[in-house]
């Protein structure tokens, strides 16, 4: 409502299945409403991305109750469409028309503008998998998910496909944000292999901080050209050195990516290069496996008993929701009629996770030979009885200090808003300290 063109506004959370989006209902002043792109730009000046509405709906007036309050129940049923506040650029040829139709199907939006940003429309990693599965099935293009960093609009995707019609280029190194004057931060993929996870981190860091992701070739081909963490780390370092021939280097990784980042730091040390920053997001040290089911269950029970009465019910509710989300849904595998939609790409990603898991379980680096330090981020929503070591076992492998930083959230949500800001602030402080040492 701080926008000069807005007289009244109300924002609701719209749910459809497991998806949630913010929908803004707006009433204009005399001059009418601005374009949705302008509204988003205005909001982004003061709000994080996760608080930006996915759609804007224009109304002549907000519905009111008999008491004169906004009647949210009387708001028009949202249609999961972008409001017609602007004359969106329409598809100009068959290629853009096909892409726009697949975007609309995936995002449940009737019409897509040529320059609408996938993430601004509520897109995320799971929807990206669905979108790229549709593109592969109907158009025959097998694209890396990280393309959304380079081409987040229909127009940019079409331009990319025209330029690479004969062969889709692929590289392990992905520019998430290439601009900035500081040395890059390299983020290694987690078990699933793709790097869309790091978009929120890149946005939360200083605008002068370049961020690159390292994606696994298994996400595109369903197989690995190497069979160990050591080989994978060596391959990724080759890609990194093409961009940055000399250190110091800044490395980080979520979960399995933390293991690979650690091995990259070990190999840099062996060649006389320096890793100025090594950060691991919620990952145990090599060989420090999660306990078995019985110990996990007993840990939950002891933890539950130790809680006060007020905290028990929310904790139990949270655990039940998590366990329920892990139950297999029917069909466990897509049926023949649905197989053409997502199964091929989903199977590829599952194969990638399986291959990475094997390399992780067989990785046994020498203890104590890495002389650098480690910045370890631990999720607080982990039962403390799971692990005996406050450093998750990393003290055995790190010759320097292990700085443990607890972050609200669980293993995955720490990389999302609003928790990601705590990680970004701590990383930024460490990176700025490195800048001072360089200066």
Give a nutshell description of this structure:
By secondary structure, this protein is of the alpha/beta class. Helices cover 38% and strands 14% of the residues.
Give a written overview of the molecule:
Helices cover 38% and strands 14% of the residues. The chain is an alpha/beta fold and 439 residues long. The chain folds into three domains: 1-87, 2-Layer Sandwich (GMP Synthetase, Chain A, domain 3), CATH 3.30.300.30; 89-168, Orthogonal Bundle (Non-ribosomal Peptide Synthetase Peptidyl Carrier Protein, Chain A), CATH 1.10.1200.10; 173-290 and 358-438, Alpha/Beta hydrolase fold, catalytic domain (Rossmann fold, 3-Layer(aba) Sandwich), CATH 3.40.50.1820. It has a seven-stranded mixed β-sheet, with helices on both faces. A three-stranded mixed β-sheet has the order 1-2-3, with no helix packed on it. Helix 9 (256-270) links the parallel strand 7 (249-254) and strand 8 (275-281).
């Amino acid at each position: 409502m701080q926008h000069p063109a807005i007289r009244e506004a109300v924002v609701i959370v719209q749910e459809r299945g497991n998806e949630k989006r913010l929908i803004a209902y707006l009433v204009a002043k005399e001059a009418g409403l601005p374009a949705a792109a302008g509204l988003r730009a205005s909001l982004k000046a003061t709000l994080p991305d996760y608080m930006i509405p996915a759609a804007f709906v224009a109304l002549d007036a907000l519905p009111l109750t008999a008491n004169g309050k906004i009647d949210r129940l009387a708001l028009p049923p949202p249609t999961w469409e972008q409001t017609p506040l602007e004359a969106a650029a329409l598809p100009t040829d068959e290629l853009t028309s096909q892409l726009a139709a697949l975007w609309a199907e995936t995002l449940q939006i009737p019409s897509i503008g040529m320059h609408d940003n996938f993430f601004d429309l509520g897109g995320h990693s799971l929807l990206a998998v669905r979108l790229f599965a549709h593109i592969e099935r109907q158009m025959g293009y097998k694209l890396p998910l990280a393309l959304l960093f380079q081409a987040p609009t229909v127009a940019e995707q079409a331009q990319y496909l025209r330029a690479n019609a004969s062969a889709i280029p692929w590289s392990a190194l992905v520019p998430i944000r290439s601009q900035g004057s500081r040395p890059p931060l390299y983020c290694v993929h987690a078990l699933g292999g793709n790097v869309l996870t790091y978009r929120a981190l890149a946005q939360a860091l200083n605008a002068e901080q370049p961020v690159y992701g390292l994606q696994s070739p298994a996400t595109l081909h369903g197989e690995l050209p190497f069979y160990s963490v050591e080989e994978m780390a060596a391959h990724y370092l080759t890609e990194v050195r093409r961009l940055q021939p000399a250190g110091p280097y800044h490395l980080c990784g979520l979960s399995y990516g933390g293991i690979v980042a650690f091995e990259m730091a070990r190999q840099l040390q062996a060649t006389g290069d320096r890793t100025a920053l090594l950060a691991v997001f919620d990952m145990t040290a090599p060989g420090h496996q999660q306990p078995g089911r019985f110990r996990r269950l007993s840990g939950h029970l002891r933890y539950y008993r130790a809680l006060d009465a007020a905290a028990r019910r929310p904790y139990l509710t949270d655990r039940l929701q998590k366990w329920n989300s892990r139950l297999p849904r029917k069909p466990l595998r897509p049926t023949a009629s649905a197989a053409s939609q997502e199964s091929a790409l989903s199977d590829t990603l599952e194969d990638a996770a399986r291959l990475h898991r094997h390399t992780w379980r067989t990785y046994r680096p020498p203890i104590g030979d890495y002389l650098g330090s480690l910045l370890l981020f631990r999720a607080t929503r982990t039962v403390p009885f799971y692990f005996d070591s406050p450093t998750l076992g990393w003290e055995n492998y790190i010759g320097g200090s292990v700085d443990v930083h607890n972050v609200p959230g669980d293993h995955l949500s720490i990389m999302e808003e609003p928790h990601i800001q705590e990680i970004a602030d701590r990383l930024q402080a460490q990176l700025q300290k490195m800048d001072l040492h360089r200066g």
